[in-house]
Amino acid sequence: MDGSKLDVEVSEPEIKDKVVQQEPLRESDNSILDATSDSPREKHISIQRQLADLEKLADLSEGEFASTVSPNTDLQVGGVGFHVFLVSAFLAGKKPCPLCPEEKFKACYSHKLHRHLQNLHWKVSVEFEGYRMCICHLPCRPVKPNLIGDQTSMKMGAHYHCIICSATITRRTDMIGHIKRHVNKGETESRYIAAPAPKSSLEVLKEADTDVQVLPNYSTPQKTDSYFNPKMKLNRQLIFCALAVLAEERNPLECLDAFGATGIMGLQWAKHLGNSVKVTINDCNENSVTMIQENCHLNKMKVVMTSKEEDDCDEAMEEGEENIGTIEVTKMDANVIMHLRSFDFIHLDPFGTSVNYLDSAFRNVRNLGIVSVTSTDISSLYAKAQHVALRHYGCNIVRTEYYKELAARIVVASVARAAARCNKGIEVLLAVALEHFVLVVVRVLRGPSPADDSAKKIRYLIHCQWCEERIFQKEGNMVEENPYRQLPCDCHGSMPGKTAVELGPLCFVALSRSGSLFNTGFLRRMLFEAVQHGLDEIQPLLKTLICEAECTTLKQFSIHGPTSQNKQGKRKSNEMIRNATKRQKAESNAEHPAFYYNIHRHSIKGMNMPKLNKFLQYLSQAGYRVSRTHFDPMGVRTNAPLAQFKSILVKYSTPTYTGGQAEGPVQSTEDAQSGDYVQASVDDKSGNTEVTDDKSGASTLLTKDDNSNDITAAESN
Hints:
Blueprint (H helix, E strand, L loop, with lengths): L14 E2 L2 E2 L26 E2 L2 H8 L3 H7 L11 H12 L18 H13 L3 E3 L2 E3 L12 E3 L2 E3 L6 E2 L6 E2 L2 H13 L18 E5 L2 E5 L18 H17 L3 E5 L6 H10 L3 E6 L3 H13 L2 E5 L4 H7 L8 E6 L3 H7 L4 E4 L9 H6 L6 E6 L2 H4 L4 H8 L9 H19 L2 E10 L4 E9 L1 H9 L1 E7 L5 E3 L18 H4 L5 E8 L12 H13 L6 H12 L19 H19 L8 E2 L8 E2 L3 H10 L4 E3 L6 E4 L3 H10 L2 E2 L8 H7 L4 H12 L8 H22 L1
Parallel strand pairs: 12-13, 12-16, 13-15, 14-15, 16-17
Antiparallel strand pairs: 1-2, 3-5, 4-5, 6-7, 8-9, 10-11, 17-19, 18-19, 20-21, 20-22, 23-26, 24-27, 25-26
């Protein structure tokens, strides 16, 4: 075995006179593997094929085992003390555990050692290509030291050694995912990386004309690495558009990216907005701060540090390069920097929940400034971990058809409470909940009156678990005798037991002009900024948000704002402005519909639903406000009651089979509770038709109405 291999290789033992022999180790000139060497290193002793192989390590004699425990291997445990422990153990006829230190497991006899290896190490191992990666308790992976005053304490943790790379991972589930990611990348060769990857191995990614250097494992980083998630591109573009709108209102603008990581977001701000913003990128991780500085130099940005490293960073810039802008990079806790300094724009994007940083964010934010909060703890917000949501946000939550909007309102409520504690109110400008994150952008309003108004908009929600009907509790402190009376449905009277749950506290109505989770004017200005900066990927989402804020369909939507009127004819633009103002005046008095309905959730078994856009037209023709929602691709936001929603859906649905005889009873049972609503709506529509209990008559009526409405829709299009 070469000395460049850092582990022990055990050959087949030949037992003669109870003496175990082993191949002698051949020493090499270089005992430590060079950092740039590509030669493979042997697997760690915790990686074996069979349980007997682990027991063979314990059967080694004291001299042979101690010779393998050299200072150049991963088994260096305790110097002289560990050797004394081995000598005493072998003299007593006991065997130590090869994967545990003395303080963890003392030497014992063979039968007890066998149970120990089988139950503690082998049973929780991770299998890969015939090998077992057993859990290791040796001090080859020290935990980060804890500084307590002048004392430094170091503790060792259990971990797994990866058979492919040199990573050490603590949890078994994380180890399984780590191996799967290696397999997905095609990395199945068992070799160690002797040293951290050099700078030449960094990958350069480009996003929105901004270059960033990332580590090769940027998508699956360790805790000490800087994290870059390409799936958060929409989130970064939304925040950039919001900052660009605020930069038009005040200049210069001091903005803070409290959790910089690679610094991609702050670099985009400084590169595209120029001198109108003063960007500060903060991170408490030293490796992240170093990478932010390198990325600033890569984009020809001048780095200003608040510590002694300012001169070193200035000298790092080459003389022939021209600086596009200046970025301040700080290394401190996010709560500390937000307490020490005031900003006009603050963005929070921590790992997981952001509730721990809301008080600091609202403490010194300037009046009419903007705070954007990105929450990535979707397991708790999306009701997969309800106890975590109760712990972090103080909210009771269950899984519903509108769970994404429920998550957005939970975050808005927590933001409103944090702002109210600082005598500040909020105006919700934007609330987006997608697959990987929940983004809330609010404007800060100073004063106790806005704070009181924000606090009053937080209420509880009554949700029916049978029909998915929901309604906010009435304002007031008086206890109601029967809360079920507030629900429009009668499930409590027809179903046994308790049918409804109380969710919240949630944001009832945001302090926006439309009374919704969106500010239409701000969204239109964001869309204009997205067009100006060429952000094509975010424009469809912004158009959907504007339609959702106005509760209109895309066919009624116009993206032309006041800034682009000079590009069109005066007559056409004036007509569009008049129609828009009339519609806004008519809808301003009406309350914006809260939540949405999923068309698949309320579909009828055995019936074909109409197309979603057709169904939106049918609801609009019935006199209801209707729009699609970004929360759910098959969701419909409307002010129609659930009974009317179901009745219109039943009316324009067709049987699966042409005969319709077998599907008739299914339709009648689904419409049993809402038969009165169907009768009223059909009478209002036709005037000369009547719904009866006859199955054939009902199927004929549906076919007749469906055909006639299809012809009308075709003529209107």
